[in-house]
Input
Amino acid sequence: MMKMKEYVKKPIFFERNRVHRLYLGGQSFADFFLSEKEADNYYPEEWIASTVEANNSKSYRLREGVSIVRGTNIFFDELLEKYPEELLGNRKYDILVKLIDSAIRLPIQTHPTKEFSKKHLNCEYGKTEAWLIVDTRPGAKIYLGFNDKYTREYLEELAVISEHDKEIMTAVCQQIEVKTGDVFMINAGVAHAIGAGCTILEIQEPTDFTVQPEYWCGDQIISDQERYMGLDKRVAMSAFNFDLVGESVIKNSALTPRVEMESAALKKENLISYDDTTYFALNRYSLKGDSLPLPYGPSVWIVLSGAGRIAGDYYRKEIKQGDYFYLPFAAQNKFQILSDEEIVLIECLPSKQE
Output
């Protein structure tokens, strides 16, 4: 058995980590993870290399949301605490990565800024996030930005009406049809919601903070705790930025992938760069018949399509679509991806650091 001190210097894989939510989804995971077919259910999210506990009113397993290292009973955050030098160096791992599959519209919502979280939630992180649309069902769309100038009081009135009119709050948001490959930056404070039929890879600050004032999520009643994060309603509602209105929100949120380098064998695209936000970065690599060094740890890697292998000194592991792993600080520049066929990977990077 490999000693843990050596284990944490290599790519780390995890047990599947489905998280309970109030909305139905998950059917499309069978295609992404190349697994058995399943019906939509209340486990529509896979949290990837996660150190964050889900903010559920009821927990469905011990420390729900926190990833468990594959083949062990070790929670990932505990491993990071025990081996910080090997896993982190002097860097922060301050992101949460998710795969989300929605069969229904999620509630109109927003997330707090860092400043709001520090003041009201005793936390240094807010929840700015970004989305890569991985797949869609017919009619897939998102809701992004207020379509007019509203007040907190008006939104509170609509929240009350939503007990009897489940769609009333959709009237305040702009709707956008989406397709595979679309990228959106969702800054904290922006009103938004994932619509039905979206499979999304999400990278975000490492919290589960959401203000979602609607009364219902599908056929599920949203508790006050889950609507307002346990805060006074008016305080929670002030997390919405009511100045973020109209086409400018969409223009600033919808991003076009930027090609950083391209050859016959390798293409690198910046989906989210540190010019877009300092909180995280997202890169896409398309590799065929060549090698791709793994240069930066800590980072998270997800295989979007294809197959290949990870290789390093005395190490070789086959990978395929749906696999994901954490690259420790001690492993950077010591491993590479090889593929004889085409493989497409996403690299998820933590906040910009010196």
In short: DSSP finds nine helices and 19 strands in the chain.
